[in-house]
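Trying the structure run again after the queue cleared.
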Amino acid sequence: MPEQQQWTIAATENPPEWFIQAVKQHTPASSGIYAAQLLWQRGIKDRQQLTAFINHKAYQPASPFDFGQEMHLAIARLQQAYNIKEKIAIWGDFDADGITATSVLWDGLGQFFKQNTQLIYYIPNRLKESHGLNNQGIDNLAKQGCKLIVTCDTGSTNIEEIIYAKQLGIDVIVTDHHTLPAERPPVAAIINPRYLPREHQLFNLSGVAVAYKLVEALYQSLPNIAKHPLEDLLDLVAVGLIADLVQLSGDCRYLAQMGIQRLQADFQQPAAARRRPGVGRLLELCQKSGDRPTDISFGLGPRINAVSRIQGDASFCVELLTSRDAKRCNELAEVTELANTRRKSLQKDVQAQVAQKLTQLDLSTTSVIVLEDAQWPAGVLGLVAGQVAQETGRPTILLSTEGSGESGVGSGEEDSAPTPYSLLPTPLAKGSARSVNSVDLYQLVKDQAHLLHRFGGHPFAAGLSLLVENIPLFTAAINQQLRQSLGSTTLTPTVQADLTVTVADLGKELFLELKLLEPCGMGNPVPKLLIQNCWFENSWHRNQQDWQGKKVQYIKTEFDIRDDSSTSAFPGIWWGHYKDELPIGKCDCIAELDYNTFKKRYEIRLIAVRPSVNSALNTRNGLNAPLSLTPLILDWRNFPTSDSQAQTRLTASLPSTDAINRVSPPLLLEDCPTNWDDLRAWLRRCLTISSSQQLAIAWSKPNLQPPNQIWLTLVGIAKYLSRTNQLVTRVQLLEKIGITDQTLLVGIKALKYLGFTVKRQDRYLQITWHPSDSAENLAEAAVERFLAAVREEQFQREYFAEVPLSTIVAIASSDNYMGTNF
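Done. Tokens:
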């Protein structure tokens, strides 16, 4: 279960007045104090730095030839290929950085080499191949007559594959930003910013930015050949940079700023006139306009990444990003959107399964979370691992042993190092790792290389594969290693606020002031705002639907936030949460200020919320001590509930010194609720009966039947009752079918359209059937309404089966349940 989140506020150092006035020049409609404070905190402390940070026109980007001799070697080899008309293959990667890097080389090198004849590209299949070069793909390119491979976002550590290509008469130019090999590989050139000093303005480039620098160097070396301006590539560079979560400083920030401007300018064109109709259609599908970094990080990036996660082969994404055929791009964009919808569904399923496994872990003795399952699709493990790491404050590694009877093909996440095994036994598990709290997860994984088949990645993200039989040993070793390095430090989930503001501060003026910091990313995060002693009104939630109107099972809550600073409320949104999880009464929250281009409004995006420590609603019996419900609510879910076992668990759950002399057995709630009101009713009953009464939530994970099967069961029962003239109670029907009253009512209405008549006789229902009375044209819609109601109810049951006890306690603690307002 997720631990209690630790909140911190960034250390504040008031900037000098001259700096505030300098910032104000860039934001004349506001005081500039908030932006000045943030910029000062983040190390921008002189006028020259400030100007270059805010205005890309004042920034001097580095020359591509800052890469030194390697760039000169690369350009010389490309000029040779140009002069003798050699065939070149771009070898890309399947994530957003790799896809955009491939697209940049496809468009950029395509100015010098004829596409599809002299120039081709290859994207590995995520579900069948590893990141990086492989011999089978090299063989395929050799058969097509390729004499030069240019990699992008990959290849630095593929020593054996590079040697193999050389044996086939193929030279390799590596452009990459991942782990460096111990020795320079036998390549024509290797352009990797990790060879540069850490303080160099090119050091943090992602794969797409390195590819751009190669094209930039070729444009400078052959200045009279290209027909399209180099700047046409910048929108793709921005997408890859921001999606890859690299540190947006130096040239990374400059390129992202320039690229977002190009992205927005192209989107504002009529659809038929856009340079990149595929990108424009993707922005339309995710209801973005391309003017914000979040349009990439929450919109374009996840959609491009989803294709390989779901389908394996993401090659068509290059066509989607580079083709000028609007009709074809619309088709590919819709395929991409469907893949993203499927990704959301798979991710939700895996998240629920991981949450269940987490309940069996003792996080107090766990430094690195390592979980495995044979049913987990490898494509979404990195996403789920990232969420678990954030919730628990611990590095997380999720492994799939799916198909482990066959030899594995390597890591599922990052560049891969060669296997230490000469002969690889089976079976293999492969998975993804995500870090948090500044723990260098890549180094942790690398130190266990002797247990791994392949691995690679970054300090915050890594991919790996290993023998299934080595998982227990790997888990123990990596946990011991991190515990030793941490010493007495405790890992806890942490969220940091940058500024303290009021509701009155929120709005256009503050938004435009904070926008000076964009584009935000690693090293320059989106400002997080602490709002204290606030409360929520007009909250509601719903399941989000996909672009075709089909239900996708994830949720968002919308609300208005208020405090004493203003008579006006301010809108907000909370992704992935129900409205009932918002505290009732005064609370503190951490949020990001955003502009919703679809609704054309400013709003906050809620990050974290907790009851206010100063709220009078969070006291008991008039005392000033906060009320804790942790010992009052017992989590006995998915356990048997016989009286003897319940008493044993009750005794074990009580503190050693029972200050309030609890002696009564707990109230036992065995039916999984479908809404918070059901749970509130039991909590109210618990507290009304006795101030010392406990509530044990003891429902099991629901064993849910497919909605269609439930409908057939209801029809079958109705036919049986009609044929035998038997009566049935409502409770009997509910128990037999396993649905709620409200859903049963929808089902009864649907039965009527099939010719059934349902009459009430005292406590019983009488059902008769007259098939000739059925109205088939209306029945189909009525049945679909029933199926939709069942799906919604099942979604709610699955949520309450897995919802952490900490969430239940937080919601209960924030309600004024001691009075009439519970």
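The radius of gyration is 30 Å. Worth checking whether this holds up in the mutant runs.
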